[in-house]
Amino acid sequence: MPLTLSRKIDNLGYGRVKRRQGNEAVLEGTMSFRDAFRDMLDSIKTPYNECIEYLKKNMKLDPYFVEFYKWSRENNVPIVVLSSGMVPVISALFETLLGGEPDDHLYIVANQVESRDGKDINSEGGWQIKYHDDSHFGHDKSLEIKPYAALPDSVRPTLLYAGDGVSDLSAAAETDLLFAKKGKDLVTFCEREKIPFTLFESWESILATTKDILSGKVSVKDVAHDGLEAVHKGANKN
């Protein structure tokens, strides 16, 4: 659900123009994600419970994510949602959009919600984000990935990561295969930093690629190589 918080800021906060300015400042290195994101969320004065209801009514899962979710459950492939969002918000949306509480193969690692200055979070301006860690990201997603990457080859899992925005920058170089959404900020960052990635437009291609990797039809190295070739040929510009 990469658009969840963007939609919330655009429609309940100070709007798309200022949000984009914040994202660009993070990309350019003139502002930390932690500070930029807090500024964005602080522009939302809507009570917490009303924010949840707004998102439930207006959000949809990425195309084919439900298929990916069901396939991963049937094939014992864990899904870890590393998010710059907030656990209660993400959990509530999954329960609504999946038709119930997610199964045990889906884990959420994200920030929390807390009261602002002792106020009721369901009052106007009463809530704020409580960051997961002390990093300049607020939630440094790479810290969740590195312990798995450091495991011995005999038990180390294959690490696939899908992202689209500035909150994914820290994780970009830590995974075996990075899926970056076409036309989004993560692609801009990866191209500039020369980090290999594979473009995606929906979870349909992620599902197909993951199936091929699990079956042994293709290797992660081959997919990464093909993805880089596609980008060099201008796939992100179409």
UniProtKB/TrEMBL annotation:
An annotated GO BP: L-serine biosynthetic process
Keyword Hydrolase attributed: yes
Pfam families assigned: HAD
InterPro entries linked to this entry: HAD-like_SerB, HAD-like_sf, HAD_hydro_PyrdxlP_Pase-like, HAD_sf
GO CC annotation terms, alphabetical: cytoplasm
Keywords: Hydrolase
SUPFAM superfamilies: HAD-like (SSF56784)
Gene3D superfamilies (UniProt xref): 3.90.1470.20, HAD superfamily/HAD-like
GO function term, MF aspect, one: magnesium ion binding
Name the UniProt record assigns to this protein: HAD-like domain-containing protein
Organism: Aspergillus welwitschiae
